[in-house]
Amino acid sequence: MADFCTAALTMDADATLRHVVLRYFHVFMLQLAATALADAKYPVEQRLARWLLMAHDRLGHELPLTHDFFALMLGVRRPSVTEALHILEERQCVRAERSLVVVRNRAKLEELAGDAYGVPEGEYRRLLLRE
Question: The HTH crp-type domain covers which part of the protein (predicted)?
Fold first, then answer.
């Protein structure tokens, strides 16, 4: 509790810090809402494409992640992830190996993800990456 109080007092005293934290919180909440929407609205392969794009943004082309991890993140059974990865491989978006997914064609992944990807990422760039 003391750490929270210290952080709150620091934010009260520093308008720049408060502004950055509130921008980050806005983007975080937008990402959370986009995830809930994607989980309710889109099929597994589209949600996986979205998730792979988000991971690619942060980690690059080689993603050292397992089918079990994707199943946990997407809230589906492992066989559903395997099936979705096969679809993405057939479309030459990714190459999946044991505990590794390699993004081969980001543009195709973006096309498959459609409007499930991009809004929070655009807000992140707009609000937090400004110079």
Answer: 46-112
